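Hello again,

I reread your note about wanting to compare the complex against the isolated chains. To keep things tidy I'm splitting this into two emails, and this first one only covers the full assembly. Below are the input lines as submitted, including protein chains and any nucleic acid or small-molecule components. They are followed by the predicted structure of everything together. The single-chain runs will come separately.
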Amino acid sequence: MTPPGENSRGSAPQDDNKRAAVARAWVLRLSSGEDTEADRLAFAEWLAASDDNKRAYEKAQSIWEALGEVDGIENLLTHRDSVTEFRPRNSMTRRFLVGGAMAASLAVATGIGFLLMQPAPTETLLYATVTGEIETITLSDGSRVTLGGASKLTGEFTPDGRTLELVSGNAYFDIARDEARPLTVHTDDVNVRVLGTRFDIKTRPDFVAVAVDHGHVRVTSPATGSRQDLTAGEKIVSDATHGISEVMTFDAGQELSWRSGRLSFVDAPLRYIVADMNQYSDRPIRLSPTAPADLHLTLSFPVDQIEQVLAGLDAAYPVAIESRQDDILITQGD
Amino acid sequence: MQAKVNERDRSPRTLMPGDPVSAPLTDAARQRTSFLNSLFRLHYAELVGRLRKVYGVGPPDPEDVAQAAFSKIAELDDLERIHSPRAFLFRTAVNICLNSNDKLKRSRAFVRSQLESNFSQRLEEKSAESVFMGKQDLERVAHVIRQLPPKQREILLRSRFRGQTYDEIRQETGWSQADISRQLNKVMALLQAELDR
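Full-complex prediction:
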């Protein structure tokens, strides 16, 4: 690795920032398992070049090391959607239905060995996107899944079945038909079982929405024991307290436009819109307690123009947008 | 990661509660033994639980790693200076796993040799009193981690805690090495920005 240019002698803030970035890059490079002999020589030279470099490296290294001292780091990195607050729910039922690796690790933890005797999965899946990223993946059975921003999908395909779990965010599923291997998508609230069809699932801290684009699916809610069959053009939402909602119709052009990088809302509450925006915004958008979270809006915009849209809201509605260094705050406006 | 805990990292005398200790039983030695025993009693099960979250059923086997971490602690001269045994044990255990990957171990040793010739402060686990950050700063780190998108959390878990190389992460997730590097650099920049505030 050639560290980005570090030639400065002065200590202007931008030099220090650059030096800190170089130091962080070195820490990571030397923890990557991919560093070469040439890298190590270049690093030794850079380190010895100035005391400022040494201090910057020491600082970056201490951040990397300190990650191991964070209380509960194992939970922060492995739990589903740790951004959300704790919600009591009967997760045992759900976890056991998930099967595969998660059930296996739970089985060991609780000493229930029989689950381990189930056949080993033939294929373990893991896909995740960062904020702002939309990605389409083709699975081994020919199914295609488009993941929205900040989303995570895991799963296992065995000879007998196909299991996916939408851990966070949202996804559009175009599932290849396989009568012998039905496919189930698990979420926090509901399970969606299909043979072959196209549908969209969005998970949020307080609800899950399932919308069917083509074919039909069966949605079950383990928490409430309710179930609902859906066909093309139909949609439900489900939450832990109410279970599955009445069947609604939806406009595919609007509801599924996120796949081409456009978010569309018809008469939707501001808090729903903000939750979607946060899958794509560089800076988190926060609703202050005074913000009109239930203000209903009709909007359509590309995901890379969120800030412009917010500025427009500020001008046209009783909301105030405060653009800060680390986040964007929405409060009550005039 | 196909890592196994190196044989040499395992102590020949795995510490168990109530084990007789062969050292001369001075008061200091007795105190030390009783301290180690209480440490084991209080923290062993929880440490295994924490490691199981990171490594699953292994490899590396969480029980093996936990025992190796206790063995390492038993070798320390300045036991009484451990600030938080719980955090120290976990960090030590994770480092044992990182060192079980030969590539990572070699690079870590190289960095250490460079730093030791240049620094007074030691950046490794040998010394019980080394703490990288105060409690408040650690909470700020946790705050940043909570907000990371799933992909960045996944990469951080694999690289920093499971000790997977970028190529191993690529093979299991399909993300390119350049992408992995970019995401980790972003995470580190966020962490430093938060800590420098």
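For quick reference: The radius of gyration of chain A is 24 Å.

B.
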